[in-house]
Design a protein that fits this description.
The complex is a heterodimer. Chain A is mainly beta. Chain A has one domain: CheA-289, Domain 4 (OB fold (Dihydrolipoamide Acetyltransferase, E2P), Beta Barrel), CATH 2.40.50. Chain A contains 3 helices and 12 strands; from the N terminus they run αββββββαββββββα. Chain B has 2 domains: about 130 residues; about 160 residues, OB fold (Dihydrolipoamide Acetyltransferase, E2P) (Beta Barrel), CATH 2.40.50.180. Chain B has a 6-stranded mixed β-sheet with strand order 8-1-2-11-10-9. In chain B, strands 3-6-7-5-4 form a 5-stranded mixed β-sheet. Classes of the chains: A mainly beta, B alpha+beta.
Chain lengths: ~170, ~375
């Protein structure tokens, strides 16, 4: 099930000279930049609701929410990416995502759209980052004269962190 | 002088006795005729003192005063008292002078010994540089011998003085040793070892190590064109041959998890360019700024670009106008210094390699802390 969800939804365009695969991404905004995650990993997008804090939880865990009877852990995405904190607004959303480990929620400033990107247009980021968060980025792509930063959600947490979140 | 004094004294004594004899005769004469027992007799008793006063005032006093005060006493006062003080002072001064005189020649002898040692060491260092270390040992031995000699003669203070002088000599002796080529090579190799240590400690990649290991300066013709630009008030120069293009800065996309000198990425004609905060990469104490840089300068055909505040145009400069560096040191990105403009000439290829490796040479500033 997880493999099917994580599989890349490729759209072949016969008119494309690059003959590259098209990937569909859900874009969201954090701070001043736009990020994209694989659409197949996004279950749903929720408006912001109260998040119950969990005592003793790691700093990157905002708390838990009740999603139709299921407890979902919400991650502080800004803190995870090393960005400054921000106030919750009307545009704040909780994206419920499904990695190959488990279902979690990530808090984002806003959710923009779903876009198709040619894999040939995706470039690697410079391998100069020394922080762990640099591993979250799987590439950048130009979209309407703006660069989308593409996130690999499976690397958002390490093995131990996934385990820790599961045991909350 | 003494004879005349004695004669005068004799004369005054003779006069004195003559006058005394005369007074006694007069008193005897008056004593033979006793005064009547009346109140006047009581009043007449002071007549004897009158006679004494008369004798003192008229005969005795003037002569004695003249002789004792003017001739004898002044000579005694000015001849003896001051001379004693002077003698005491001179005795004290001479004692002090004697002590200083005692110490000074001893110090002089030491300095003579040390100067002799100096004259011995200088030709030794000049002639045979390889055997400097054992010779300095013998020199120190000779100096310590001189110190032990002076310990018996002088004292602790002079010993300390000589000891400090010996230390100075040892410093002077070490200086020419560092100037030798072999030792400079050793120092350079030690620095390289420290750099290697830092590279390993910081977990630098193999690429970053190669930047330092395979560093060679720019091979360029007798004259070449150079672009001068200013960032944050600091002027840099880049050889045009290694330059890519100059663009006005558009939107920079911040990429999290990158070093602070990495400003972000921008798309220029479909090509993603990594923009580096120039000053933050090369300058340790630069905290960066929020104001955007108006230009970016791409380096060759790479994906890397430097930020720029002001373009000063390009000029043709001679190769001799640059003070070229001979080794990578801790700043491989620095090819040399343009003498006239006094600005850094950037080694573009080395800088690109540093960017690709993700290693900032500012980490090598920790070399100072390594022992």
């Amino acid at each position: 099930m997880a493999d099917e969800n994580n599989s890349v939804q490729a759209v072949y365009d016969p008119n494309d000279g690059n003959k590259g695969e098209f990937l569909r991404w859900v874009t969201f905004q954090l701070d001043r930049e736009i990020y994209g995650v694989n659409v197949m990993q996004v279950r749903e997008v929720l408006r912001y609701s109260d998040i119950a804090p969990v005592p003793g939880a790691p700093a990157y865990v905002l708390g838990i929410i009740n999603l139709r009877g299921n407890v979902v852990t919400v991650i502080d995405t800004r803190m995870r990416f090393g960005l400054p904190t921000a106030e919750v607004t009307e545009n704040t959303r909780i994206m419920i995502i499904e990695s190959d480990k488990q279902v979690i929620g990530i808090l984002v400033d806003s959710v923009a759209e779903v876009v198709d990107l040619n894999t040939a247009d995706i470039d690697d980021t410079p391998n100069v980052g020394t922080e762990e968060s640099a591993k979250f980025i799987c590439g950048v792509c130009n979209r309407n004269n703006e660069l989308l930063i593409l996130i690999d959600l499976n690397k958002l947490l390490s093995e131990d962190e996934w385990q820790e979140v599961a045991n909350l | 002088m003494s004879l005349s004094h004695q004669n005068r004294e004799d004369e005054t004594l003779l006069d004195y006795f003559k006058q005394m004899l005369a007074v006694e005769v007069r008193e005897i004469d008056k004593a033979q005729v006793p005064p009547p027992p009346s109140s006047t007799n009581l009043e007449s008793k002071p007549q004897v003192p009158q006679m004494e006063d008369f004798a003192k005032e008229e005969v005795y006093k003037p002569q004695l005063q003249k002789i004792e005060k003017e001739e004898v006493l002044p000579k005694v006062e000015f001849a003896e008292a001051p001379s004693l003080e002077q003698l005491l002072s001179t005795i004290e001064s001479t004692e002090a002078q004697e002590t200083t005189v005692v110490t000074e020649p001893k110090v002089e002898t030491k300095t003579q010994e040390q100067s002799a040692v100096d004259t011995q060491t200088k030709p030794l260092v000049e002639t045979k540089t390889q055997e400097v270390v054992p010779k300095t040992q013998t020199e120190l031995a000779t100096t310590t011998e001189s110190v032990t000699d002076t310990q018996v003669a002088t004292g602790t203070e002079t010993q300390r003085a000589t000891e400090t002088q010996v230390k100075v000599e040892s410093k002077v002796e070490v200086a020419p040793q560092v100037e030798t080529k072999a030792q400079t090579q050793k120092v350079a190799s030690k620095q390289e070892e420290k750099i290697a240590k830092v590279l390993t400690q910081e977990g630098a990649s193999q690429e970053s190590r190669e930047v330092f290991e395979t560093w060679q300066n720019i091979e360029i013709g007798r004259e070449f064109q150079t672009l001068f630009f200013v960032v944050g008030g600091v002027r840099f120069a880049v050889p045009l041959i290694d330059l890519g293009s100059i663009f006005e800065t558009t939107k920079l996309t911040y990429i999290f998890g990158q070093p602070n000198w990495f400003l972000g990425m921008t798309d220029i004609r479909g090509k993603k360019i990594n923009v580096v905060d120039t000053l933050r990469f090369v300058k340790e104490d630069y905290a960066g700024r929020e104001e955007p840089y108006p230009y970016i300068i791409t380096l060759g055909t790479s994906r890397w670009a430097l930020t720029c505040d002001k373009l000063e145009g390009n000029r043709t400069i001679l190769k001799d106008a640059v003070k070229w560096r001979q080794s990578a040191g801790s700043r491989p990105w620095l090819a040399g210094i343009v003498k006239e403009q006094m600005c850094a000439l950037i080694h573009v290829q080395a800088l690109i390699k540093l960017f690709e490796s993700g290693f900032n040479p500012r980490m090598l500033d920790q070399i100072k802390d390594l022992s």
